[in-house]
Amino acid sequence: MLRIAVPNKGSLSEPAVDMLREAGYRQRRDTRELVLADPDNDVEFFFLRPRDIAVYVGTGTVDAGITGRDLLLDSGAAAVEHMQLGFAGSTFRYAAPVGTITSLDQVEGLRVATSYEVLVENHLRANGVTASVVHLDGAVESAVQLGIADVVADVVSTGTTLRGAGLEVFGDPILKSEAVLIRPASVSDDAVSAGLETLTRRLLGVLTARQYVLMDYDVPAHLVEAAVALTPGLESPTVSPLHDRDWAAVRAMVRRDQTNKLMDALYEVGARAILVTSIHACRL
Q1: How far is residue 121 from each of residues 73, 78, 228, measured CA to CA in Å?
Q2: Which ranges of the chain have pLDDT less than 70?
Q3: Which candidate, 137, 140, 104, places its Cα nearest to that of 123?
Q4: Where is the Histidine biosynthesis HisG C-terminal domain (predicted)?
Q5: 63-85: per-residue pLDDT in tens?
Q6: Are 136 and 143 in contact (CB under 8 A)?
Q7: Quick one: how many helices (H) and strands (E) in the chain?
Q8: Could you tell me the pTM of the whole model?
């Protein structure tokens, strides 16, 4: 059976479970379950701490896992990113008291507090900066005020928490992270198992179904080319003649975030009866 590690709690957990469920896999109903077998799909799920998942994958204890890119890089484990999953996006940045630091080279010789010690040390080294990294488990925003650090490095979304602590971000982002599917580094691209290939196709199908919709519309036959230029689909749109031969029916996949803009443009071209349908699942 394919063994997959899934976050057992935190911001990665629920979206990961929802995505796997949409992909057709059985998921636990009780959060106290640590192991769940899905014999119909020849898969076994292990619910682990998000920070530990890369370690289990890297040692080959499990065949694949879902975690954050930041956690993968910070683990130092022998695991690699297999595919992006499109949720739990975040930006990892440095921050310091307002008006004190504007560039990374000014961190030279200072103390940097973070929960991602390996990630930060590697980033500083790659940029030729020598600093003392102070490891903290949990929130680091108070580290400067409490006197144990001069700079912090942490995940930033809106920056509200940092501003509340009198801090501001500076320099370029250390990392842009999101949820990723990972596999052991020892497994090359051309040696991926059939089970992992199936998982990959299913997750890609979920991502596509979330990003695209089906758009159907009727359009005068002489305006078909102008209409399909707006909705070319993934390969090519389906064009069918209607009972009234002066009209044609068109079906195409379009990006969900462009739906209303395309409907307006199609209406201007001359299309009518424009309908949009969600995609539950797909394979490309």
Answers
A1: 11, 18, 52
A2: none
A3: 104
A4: 209-280
A5: 999 999 999 999 999 999 999 99
A6: yes
A7: 8, 15
A8: 0.87
